[in-house]
Amino acid sequence: MKILLVDGTIFGRKTGVLLEQVQQYIQAFNPSLELEILYFSKLQHQILDGSPLNDDMKKMIQKFEEADAYIFASPIFQASIPGVLKNAFDMIPPKALRYKPAAIIGNGGTYQHHLVLENQLRPILDYFRCLVTPNYVYTHADHFDKENKIIDEDVHNRLRELARVFVQYCEMTKTLSKQAVDMQ
Q: Could you list the residue ranges forming a coiled coil in this record (predicted)?
């Protein structure tokens, strides 16, 4: 089963660090899962404006289509997900994520920004009909040291629990995605 961990920003390292940590926890729960982190910072992005897509955007879309499940990590800027993440969602065919497990991780500069994950990112994933885990992890700059290492044990516990639930969602939905494709 292919799991795509999406670092939905081109700025900073905290969301990448969170994904790298949750990747380790997922591997501990199920080492047979094929995990890949897609760092948006390593792609040449373009705005969806009707022009032909560049190779990086084609590759990104292909990775979304081929994945069986997702973990989305997003920073919160100006009380919103980054435009580059929303632009990526605009490029993905609506059925590409259907009935596939997804989990959400976020990071922001205020503790109140956790609501952006619930009120902005989750509805987008619901539109795609992802099977979003009920738990998400939100972190704050205080949870990291100056080298962006996670220093808060509660954050580690919440990431570990997110990984555990996510792996269970993956197990529960192994046949669901295939059945949905067969019915189309």
A: none
